[in-house]
Amino acid sequence: xxxxxxxxxxxxxxxxxxxxxxxxxxxxxxxxxxxxxxxxxxxxxxxxxxxxxxxxxxxxxxxxxxxxxxxxxxxxxxxxxxxxxxxxxxxxxxxxxxxxxxxxxxxxxxxxxxxxxxxxxxxxxxxxxxxxxxxxxxxxxxxxxxxxxxxxxxxxxxxxxxxxxxxxxxxxxxxxxxxxxxxxxxxxxxxxxxxxxxxxxxxxxxxxxxxxxxxxxxxxxxxxxxxxxxxxxxxxxxxxxxxxxxxxxxxxxxxxxxxxxxxxxxxxxxxxxxxxxxxxxxxxxxxxxxxxxxxxxxxxxxxxxxxxxxxxxxxxxxxxxxxxxxxxxxxxxxxxxxxxxxxx
Length: 344
Ligand SMILES: *Cc1c(COP(=O)(O)O)cnc(C)c1O
Known about the structure:
By secondary structure, the protein is α+β, with helices and mostly antiparallel strands. It has helices at about 55-60, 80-95, 100-115, 160-165, 200-205, 255-265, 280, 315-330, and strands at about 25-30, 40-45, 60-65, 65-70, 75-80, 125-135, 150-160, 170-175, 210-215, 225, 230-235, 240, 270, 285-290, 295-300, 305-310, 340.
């Protein structure tokens, strides 16, 4: 199936960020107090759940997000998949769920990518976004961990943000009414419960012309945390700073990689609390995440005050870091750290 080059027949140049369903999904089940054993690929489609499934009633579920990318030489690669596997394991522990081992996770995402190979965009056109889910699918009449769990993976081709939207900088709105995460909560994991509460502030921000919301810490309301689904960095006098991930901020694989890349380039990177006032003084700001890669921030608005940054500056830190990150991903820069995992 697929055309003579093995691709599905779609126009890769008009690929967006929406969901395009692919041929196969991966499914693996296990009971409470047992371990995941064997999963399999099945045709993509709807799943059946008990109305009393724990995930539907009490939100016992976590997810991951990663990309499989096709290189010019035909190789299909993942970027640091162990980071996603470990994060899911940690998240599962906090949410009282059994989780696939790191090896099981990586094997399953590989299988999913290869089964949907004809949907992996040609080099430079995008990637196959892969979404692993771990859900408490057993029925639970009261608030208690489910008796049965499902690890499910689906995939969708998406375009690469950095080719079409490189100049489309984010206009962030600092939210000082709604919080994203609280002390002792689950802000530090990709728990499904973290995202619906963000829809109201995000909708409000979008209706007012902003691209996304920048959240502050919920204890003092003074310090910057992160954006709806990406981490934030600021640059001042060539020093890069980002808030520390201590439970309320999602520890992004891209964030961690960007810190390492910047330090390898000889730049100073500080993981420290960033007071919201510091945003007004910064030379530059950018966001990181698997979906956006590295994207510049064009403006930040806080309590009616708007600061703008020179996002498109050719000497910007964002551009330097983005080009190295993209270079390592597409193979133009040697991967000295073992971040790239070939899957075919
Ligand atoms: C997924 C996510 C990120 C980015 O994490 P990556 O591993 O870099 O993709 C940042 N913040 C939130 C809230 C997220 O859900």
